[in-house]
């Protein structure tokens, strides 16, 4: 392999490792906050815990997708590997989409005005 390809491969690996670190770190921090909460058995604390884990997963998935795209498009761009990347990106995008709905409580294309009209709380009211 040429030195440039090796550098790009290393960069892609670092980005993927950052994604794993975000997921593991987000899970650890969110778990620590949950178990050190005075009333961690309350429903509200549990929902904050679930949302924290979902946010860490969303951000980590974004890093993992970026690393996969860099690695596949730049380094190994055979038809089979591009098709595999497409399937992986679709699965991860679907996971990120469903996690977004879980965390935010609405579809991504709906803004706070829609939620307010439907009787939901806005982001400012949730904090």
UniProtKB/TrEMBL annotation:
What is the scientific name of the source organism? Billgrantia kenyensis
Transmembrane domains' residue ranges: 12-35, 56-76, 82-103
This protein's UniProt keywords: Membrane, Transmembrane, Transmembrane helix
Q: Does the keyword Disulfide bond apply?
A: no
The protein in question is named DUF1622 domain-containing protein
């Amino acid at each position: 392999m040429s030195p440039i390809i090796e550098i790009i491969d290393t960069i892609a690996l670092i980005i993927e490792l950052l994604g794993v670190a975000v997921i593991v770190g987000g899970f650890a921090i969110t778990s620590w906050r949950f178990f050190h909460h005075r009333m961690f058995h309350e429903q509200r604390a549990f929902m904050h815990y679930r949302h924290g884990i979902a946010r860490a997963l969303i951000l980590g998935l974004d890093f993992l997708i970026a690393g996969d795209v860099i690695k596949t498009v730049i380094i190994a761009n055979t038809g089979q590997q591009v098709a595999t990347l497409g399937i992986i990106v679709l699965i991860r995008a679907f996971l990120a989409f469903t996690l977004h709905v879980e965390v935010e409580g609405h579809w991504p294309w709906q803004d706070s005005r829609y939620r307010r009209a439907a009787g939901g709380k806005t982001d400012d009211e949730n904090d």
